Fold each of these.
Amino acid sequence: MSICGENLPSDGALPSGALTKSTQPIGRSPESNQHIGGTKAQDFIRGDVITYFLDTWEVTLANWMLLLHKTALPKDGIYSVQQMTTAVKALESVIAGEELLPAKFGYLHLINFLDALETPIQLQKDNGQECKRKSAATIAFDQYLAVQGHKGKKNGKDALAYKSEIGRRWKELASPSSLLLLAFSDAAEDFV
């Protein structure tokens, strides 16, 4: 068997040192790493990522599924005030660190939730049923803020915009699986 031109023993075992983790560009020493705000890029990944993942994935997955359940919107796009209130409270509770699920999961799902709100709003706009002078994203923001009692308040919009930006960053980092968020260290959380 051959991988990248290297012949492997027939039992598939790799020779000692065949697989190494290298984050160094060719020709650069570890001392010359680029720093981001005093933190090395490799510091963004937990040093004990495999152990941590094995220790926490079941609890994280169960709580992630619970959050998804609490924030699920009907497929027809018609949801009650109670459904919206439950979803917003669940998201805000995770973001505030009040749940077993790390806050970064709340930020990530906030983006998914706002995107899910936008889809039926855009369909309504396309059919002439929604305000044409506002974007679907603005209307989704307004609906989220209304549940919190912040509709029309600048500080509420600013706070939601800030949370959304953090959520977009986590979504980009965690792609393709939200469980990859478990790999990121506290340094990454501070940076995001």
Amino acid sequence: VMTLQGDQEGALHFFEHAMTIDDTDPNLLTDAALIYLSNRQVEQAHRAITAARKLAPDDKNITRLWRRIQLATIAANIHRYLASTPATVKIKLLTAKYKSRLNRLIKTPKLTK
């Protein structure tokens, strides 16, 4: 609800507190991973979804989100690499076409129940 109301920070605090109480609920971990991902906190999202995947390895929604977070991790690594690369190399490596494709790939997925 907090996320829908635009209170991402409040939602994160809620999930972080809830995970200190019960870190064995894969749904809680998955929801937290979604919020982390929407806030571009890819490393935290990866930790949360990996824990959820260990608890529910056959859950298709968790696996789907895990794949999405893997792509986001790759994108973040590429971004860090390009940030440290000279501009002339950046132009050769990254065009607007590929950048927009990558952005579409890492959008937060809608999970089905």
Amino acid sequence: METIFKFFRKNYVLANCENAIIKKAFSLNLSHYQISEAPEIIGKCESLIKLFLNQNKLTKESSLHHYQSRAVASFGLGLQQAG
């Protein structure tokens, strides 16, 4: 059952990202999805100013390497300690 939840959660996150790309959104909220790394597709959100990733399972900022080439004004992060 957990595999099914992961599948739907991943596709819902990707759908939110695609919607942000299409609408040229300035913000994207991917909080509370239990993701362990930020999806690469976020790098295609060219209008993005705010990205919220808090309350996920992110353990290191290197999962945000997709955005280093662009300035993103604020990240809402809740990075967890690896261990």
Amino acid sequence: MSYVTVTGKIQMVDMECIHQALEKLGAANIRIASNNLTFTINNRHYKYSIARNGVLTIRTENQQRANTEINFMSKIEENYQQVLEEKHERIRQEKIRQEKIRREKQALEKKLAQQSANISKEQQAADAEMQNKLTKLNEDLDTTKQSIADAESFLARVEQSRQEFVTTTVDEIVTRGQNNGWTVTHNKKEANRAVTRLQLRKKQMN
């Protein structure tokens, strides 16, 4: 018995595309190995050999059967090319989308970096300004404290001098009065008014 071998016209090396091409024909129970392909359509079993270059081959009993297989194999190859082109188009579109995302990502990263730098500079400027204000306030506070301390020291010296003057003056008045025959009958210091009251009386001569 002689056989006729039918050989495909294109290389089909993408197993996923082969599977999808057969599904378009309504195939089921698809099995794809390194050197053979089997599937069923309408309960009919098909078995193809896959050459090393990815071309399908099948042996038939006669030329009439071979013509039928040639037509069917052409449909498989046509579907395969269509699925393969769709796959390439999906990959191309995916690459375009990924490139768009990559550019958007770079633009966003650049924008965020610029914003971060600007915020950092603004924050540094604000911090420096606040620090300068704080330093100035501390200096003003120290100056004020020193001024108050100097003023209080001066007032203390003035008060001490005044007290010394009053004491000296009272002593002098009393001494002079006694030398001239007067006696101190009343000596009162009013602290709240910073006043010293003296009352002198003339000694009685017998």
